[in-house]
Write a structure and sequence with these properties.
The chain contains six helices and two strands, in the order ααββαααα. The protein is mainly α.
């Protein structure tokens, strides 16, 4: 059974034969960048309900180097709301 690749031109033209081939397994590994495709309802529901599958990297792996970078980025003016954003923007101007 081949690995699904969303960048494969044949897959882009018609993805359904490949999905049909992989559906009995329920999970297909390595979609281009090491991800997985979930093709079965129970597998999807288990991931959706499991907090360890967080989209927030800080929750998924608090010790990962990217977590510190993301925390710092969230403190930047780009993620601020009023009135803090307005105050900081005034100082920068």
């Amino acid at each position: 059974m081949a690995v699904l690749s969303i960048s494969d031109p044949a897959f882009l033209v018609d993805p359904y034969p490949a999905i049909h081939e992989h559906r009995p397994a329920g999970v297909v590994p390595n979609v281009d960048h090491g991800g997985v495709w979930l093709l079965e309802s129970d597998a999807i529901q288990s991931v959706v309900r499991d907090p360890s599958f967080a989209s927030d990297p800080e929750r998924a792996d608090p010790e990962a180097p990217i977590t510190g970078i993301l925390k710092a980025a969230r403190l930047s003016i780009f993620y601020m709301d009023r009135p803090d954003h307005t105050r900081i923007r005034g100082l920068v101007s």
